[in-house]
Every structure is written in C-alpha cells, then in structure tokens.
Amino acid sequence: MGEIHVHAFMSLDGVVDTPAWSTRSADDDPGAPFFNDSTKFVVSSTLGIVEANTAWANSTVLGAYDPATIRRAADEVGNLYVSGSATLVRAMLADGLVDELHLCVFPTVRGGGPRLFPEGVDAFDLERSAADVYDNGVLYLGYRPGR
Fold first, then answer.
1. How far is the C-alpha of 29 from the C-alpha of 37, rounded, in Å?
2. Which of 98, 96, 136 is CA-nearest to residue 7?
3. CA-CA distance, 77 to 58, in Å (whole number)?
4. According to DSSP H, which parts of 38-125 are helical?
5. Which domains are seen in the chain, by residue range?
6. N or C end of the chain: which has fewer CB within 10 A?
7. Which one, of 32, 82, 81, 40, lies nearest residue 59 by Cα?
8. Confidence (pTM)
9. 3-class secondary-structure state, position 119
C-alpha cells in the first residue's frame, strides 16, 4: 500500500505559495528537473487532459476530488508526493489520506496570502517525525497525523 506525503513551502507567518515549476529549468532551480520530469496526477474538476499535458508534461488528470481515487493512485504507484494546493491538502488531511506532512518553513514573513491552515480549519493533532535546520535558515519539519 502506497503512502501519501505532502510537501509544502511556507513563510514564518504560515503563507504558502507554490512555485510555477513547469516554467523553471535547472538553471533557475536545481529541483526543477525532478518536478518537471516526474509523473504528475492532477486533481481538478475543471482541467482536462489536454490542458494538463500542455501546461506540464507527464500529467494525468484524476478528475474532481475523490478520496478513493487518490488512495487508489497511491496504491498503484507506490507513493504519492503532493506539492502545492493548500485546498487539496486540507481536504486530504480531513479525510485521513495524508501519511506524512513535510514543511519547509522559510525565515521570512509574507504578511498575507494563502495559508495552509487558515482561520476556521478544524483542530487536529500531529506527531513530529523529523526536524532539521538548514544553513540558509530554513526549518524542515516532518509530521505524521495523530492516529
């Protein structure tokens, strides 16, 4: 059975933004080839297969959010790594789909923007699975949802 791991970049004040990897090259960011060349599953009720593949190579549209479809995809490929879409991540956490949450907290304050856990999100507990501090000041935190 595959696991689902979420990766999110956030500022100290909790703002999450997703870099537009499809337009980045190795010259822009050493991690870009990994994201661009990997198989991607897109959860969307509005985006079609042609648009997904045109926007980003190696993309497969799963359709609208459906926990069973996402779990099946994880089981078929072994593990899924979710990057971006705070709305999707919140739904997956609420439905018990997330096996591990990886946060990279950057030493900056954005002051506003989308948050992974905005006001009004139901409370839940997490258990720390990892922690590290990088030379550039980024704090890596790994959590497993409390079971």
1. 14
2. 98
3. 14
4. 49-55, 67-77, 86-94
5. 3-145 (3.40.430.10)
6. C
7. 40
8. 0.82
9. coil
